[in-house]
Amino acid sequence: MFSAAPTVYHPYLNGVYTVSAGLYRLGVQPIEGRLEHHTFAFDRTYPHYMAAKAAARTRALHESYTLAGLHPGLRERALDFIAHAAAHDSGGILTWDGQTLGNDALGWAGTLDLRRGALENLRRFPAPYARLVSEVMPTDALDFLAMNVQEDLSILAVDAQTGTDFLAAIHVLLPERWNPLDKIGRDFAAVHAPVAGSGPMIATAPKLVKAALEHGPFVRFVWGVTPSGKLDHHPNLPPEPGLSDDPAQFFLRAERQTLHGFAAQHGALFTIRTYLYPLCELLDTPARSAALAAGLRTMTPAQLEYKGLSRSRAALLDWLDRRARVGA
Asked: Is residue 13 a part of any domain in this protein?
């Protein structure tokens, strides 16, 4: 039903790997020469993402979805925004009338109590991808909404009295080598402290949180290289067998992240859409191979370790340098 090809992003093209806010004003500042207005991206990989999400929540939903101090006003505002934006960005395949979100691709419709955060009624009907969620029983409104989009979701809250920020909700079924349960209830600095090289960004945390609530919306990108084509890399999963050491079989893993602030409700919605691009297809010019090689060379040993690239760095650089010299 969703026929568009996934958008291709090249966040490595400046040839420098950095851990920074890197915020673009969504709909205002061009991203690789084009303006973007959407929060949720729907494309022909939709069934693949829904299958991966369903498998992750079946394995251990409690490891991926949890709440901590999410107050009713922020919950209501965030849920309504998610439902409205998902329906808008889907091109009509998802619908939202203020009470019920329907999905003609997955064949279900849920009536939501936004204030209580409850899923009050779920009905199912025939649809192209209904089988992917046939065993899924959403626990509440946020769980249901998250199972209709390809993005992972989290909600940041700020205490109106103290100004302290904390992660009040997280629904992340497709993490990259980090545990969502380690983040819940923590502030911006603590959430990002394990990220190698995040010190300068953490130092500006109060300004970033203020900008997230009062300005924007924003979009940002992070990237890495991986031998795995899997979406879900929860650290509690067993090691993935059969991964190739051949860089020609590697992928660029890029995340498009959006931030939408709700100043009146003292919080913000954070979305993560993961993209996996085979390097052999993505690096279709010598310049792109050279740019990725340059970016990898700027990674510190700690960053290489955090990204899981310490062992493969030399082979990757050799392969990239050869492509940069002779062409794709």
From this structure: no
- Tell me, what DSSP letter sits at residue 131? G
**Which residues are within 8 A (CB) of 210 and not within 5 positions of it... i.e. 6 or more apart?**
none
Range of the domain at 206: 24-326
The CA distances from residue 19 to 13, 86, 191, in Å, are 15, 29, 14
Give pLDDT tens digits for 15-24.
Answer: 999 988 889 9
Kindly tell me the sign of the dihedral angle through the C-alpha atoms of 221, 227, 232, 234: negative
How far from the centroid of its chain's Cα atoms is residue 240's Cα? Answer: 21
Tokens at 76, concatenated: 């209501």
Half-sphere exposure for 85 (CA within 13 Å, toward CB) = 22
Single-letter residue type at 214: E
Whether residue 12 lies inside any domain: the answer is no
State the pTM of this model. 0.96
Domain count across the chain: 1
Instruction: Extract the tokens encoding 110.
Output: 């849920």
Which H or E element spans position 58?
A: helix 46-60
